[in-house]
Every structure is written in C-alpha cells, then in structure tokens.
Recover the amino acids of this structure.
C-alpha cells in the first residue's frame, strides 16, 4: 500500500510539469528526481526478471522437444525389436 501512495505522489508531482517547466518547489523537484531514479531501478529489476523468465521458458521448451524426440526414438527402437 505504501508503494501505491509513493506512486500517487510521484504522478501528482509530475502534474507540476507544464510546457516543459516545473512549477513545484525545489523540494518537490528533488523528490521527483529521487522517485524517478527508484522507479528506473525497479523497472530494470523487472526487465532482468522478465529476461530470466524468457530464458527459463525457452529452456523448458527445448527440454520438452528433446523429451518428445527421445520418446519417438524409443518407440522406433521398440518397433525395430518387435
């Protein structure tokens, strides 16, 4: 819940930007910059996590394909032995 309040405050401070100018206090601007940096860090963490997930999904797909091929090979060997 605290994160939601921080995000709400971030966007309220963004509302102080009009026509390329910031109309808030220096403290608000410093806070906005700090919160922007935190959001960038979180975004980077999410992107890293998403990359790992894609890698795991790819690995799972490769293992499933290999399992399928092994099954087909075993079936062919069994048919040869019959």
């Amino acid at each position: 819940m605290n994160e939601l309040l921080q995000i709400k405050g971030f966007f309220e401070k963004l509302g102080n930007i009009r026509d390329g100018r910031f109309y808030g206090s220096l403290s608000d601007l410093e806070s906005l910059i700090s919160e922007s940096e935190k959001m960038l860090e979180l975004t980077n963490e999410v992107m890293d996590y998403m990359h790992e997930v894609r890698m795991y999904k790819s690995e799972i797909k490769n293992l499933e394909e290999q399992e399928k091929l092994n099954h087909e090979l075993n079936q062919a060997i069994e048919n040869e032995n019959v």
